Amino acid sequence: MKLQYYVIDTPFKDTFTISGGRSKTSQPALIVSLSIGPLIGFGEAPAISYYDVTVEKMVREIKAKKLFIEKFALTDPERYWHYLHHLLPEHPFLVCALDMACWDLYGQMERKPIFKLMGNSWGNTPLTDYTIGLDTIDNMVEKVKKMPWPIYKIKLGADNDLDMLQALRKVTDSPFRVDVNGGWSYNKALEMLPRLAELGVELVEQPMARAKNEADLQQMRALYEASVLPLIADESCVRLADMTGIEQCFHGINIKLTKCSGITPARVLVDEARKRNMKVMMGSMNETVIGSAAIAQFLPQLDYVDMDGPLLLERAAGVGLRIDQGKVTLSGAPGLGVRPSDLPEGGIA
């Protein structure tokens, strides 16, 4: 295999803000490609400062391990992921990008879309929501008016959360999914959940911060028992080790390909969640079309999906994936079924 990489930085249409005052105006990312002969597979890793993931660190790791990344004889994407997992143990986002590229390449070798390689058929797939980031109430209302959508994901975690939701409810009847990113205390969550149900909220993602001790876990279990709405784990469930006892704290999990380190481990997380009779959501980290197409391969297996990166960014940076009023359509081509556009000239080998 031959490896190349491209550094991109895509502006958001609007400043993207979540709880804790975390804001950004653009999304830097690393696009990688793996090729064998004329076949080229692509993958994407967004840089997320909250997780101390930067493009510069990923590029340094690629330069240090490039020969080892390339020398693997590709016969099975899962074997390659295990190889990368041991080669790059501290770099799950980079492993994810390479795992995506490998699945894309392997799908082209087998002449099948990835979802078919995983044994699924394209049928009644869930609609993706559209995210409204934290802002002034007036700005959030204007964003909803400007983007009529069948389901909205609303970022909360501010002092005036209830006021925001009440204002948004006045301008749309669409269901809301609330994402708090761990921004509430136990008492605030307990107070808010019944009010959210009255406002047409469908589910709540990560109401409290990831548990650090047994006392935190006890509060999560108590909130789970008291909740009138489904609670979905995000930061509390990143990898397989986090699944132990997760069904006592949440009704479902939100899988992020970048955080769990790729398509290969995400398949295991889906299976584990189903064994526990939990709902399965898959979320984005504001990926372009490349990373979003990898999420789309799981649509036949999901209850909920949040893959609106190409809608939030100024440029989708790829072709082959379409999102129309929440409905996701793939090209049907082998592998990811998409190709990047607007990449820097030539890439770096």
Automatic annotation (TrEMBL):
Its EC number is 5.1.1.-. Binds 1 Mg(2+) ion per subunit. One of its GO terms (biological process) is amino acid catabolic process. The active site is at K155, K256. GO terms for molecular function: magnesium ion binding; racemase and epimerase activity, acting on amino acids and derivatives. Its cofactor is Mg(2+). InterPro entries: DgoD-like, Dipeptide_epimerase, Enolase-like_C_sf, Enolase-like_N, Enolase_C-like, Mandel_Rmase/mucon_lact_enz_CS, Mandelate_racemase_C. Keywords: Isomerase, Magnesium, Metal-binding. Mg(2+) binds at D179, E205, D234. Residues 137-230 form the Mandelate racemase/muconate lactonizing enzyme C-terminal domain. It is an enzyme of class 5 (isomerase). Pfam families: MR_MLE_C (PF13378). PANTHER family: D-GALACTONATE DEHYDRATASE-RELATED (PTHR48080), ENOLASE SUPERFAMILY MEMBER DDB_G0284701 (PTHR48080:SF3). Belongs to the mandelate racemase/muconate lactonizing enzyme family. This is Dipeptide epimerase.
